[in-house]
């Protein structure tokens, strides 16, 4: 983003999903987010890590006290990824921050829609995705990761 940030993630996504949770919609100023969960051990900053700023919030709509820390670029303001206490050792990256657009159509194509209970009615189910009313369970994520 803004030519300042460069992340390198190996193909070790735990889950790739679309998320309709209110908090995620607010932080991205969109009606849903598309992202992927990756182990922190597989996330490397090639450049620009010093430009990252962060803030945390603990009063989320669905899970009170679940601190989510947001990492964003201080140059352009783009949200790069989030980390939550509910996902220790993992980061939630945004597909739109990946330089290789083709990955969004292939390896980073979402397989799960979660929090569909918060989806606006003018957005329909995305074809071939698992629909989950709330948060995807670890079991559902693992099952989709192995497909």
From TrEMBL:
<dbReference type="InterPro" id="IPR006913">
    <property type="entry name" value="CENP-V/GFA"/>
</dbReference>
<dbReference type="InterPro" id="IPR011057">
    <property type="entry name" value="Mss4-like_sf"/>
</dbReference>
<dbReference type="GO" id="GO:0016846">
    <property type="term" value="F:carbon-sulfur lyase activity"/>
</dbReference>
<dbReference type="GO" id="GO:0046872">
    <property type="term" value="F:metal ion binding"/>
</dbReference>
<dbReference type="Pfam" id="PF04828">
    <property type="entry name" value="GFA"/>
</dbReference>
<feature type="domain" description="CENP-V/GFA">
    <location>
        <begin position="20"/>
        <end position="117"/>
    </location>
</feature>
<protein>
    <recommendedName>
        <fullName>CENP-V/GFA domain-containing protein</fullName>
    </recommendedName>
</protein>
<keyword id="KW-0479">Metal-binding</keyword>
<comment type="similarity">
    <text>Belongs to the Gfa family.</text>
</comment>
<keyword id="KW-0862">Zinc</keyword>
<keyword id="KW-0456">Lyase</keyword>
């Amino acid at each position: 983003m803004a030519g300042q940030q460069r992340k390198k993630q190996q193909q070790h996504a735990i889950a790739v999903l679309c998320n309709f949770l209110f908090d995620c919609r607010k932080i991205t100023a969109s009606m849903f987010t598309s992202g992927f969960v990756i182990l922190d051990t597989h996330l490397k900053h090639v450049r620009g890590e010093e430009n990252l700023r962060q803030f945390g919030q603990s009063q989320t709509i669905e899970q009170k006290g679940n601190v989510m820390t947001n990492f964003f670029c201080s140059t352009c303001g783009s949200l790069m990824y989030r980390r939550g206490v509910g996902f220790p050792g993992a980061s939630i990256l945004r597909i739109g921050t990946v330089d290789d657009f083709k990955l969004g159509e292939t390896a980073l194509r979402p397989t799960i829609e979660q929090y569909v209970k918060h989806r606006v009615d003018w957005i329909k189910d995305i074809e071939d995705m698992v629909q989950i009313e709330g948060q995807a369970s670890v079991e559902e994520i693992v099952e989709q990761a192995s497909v």
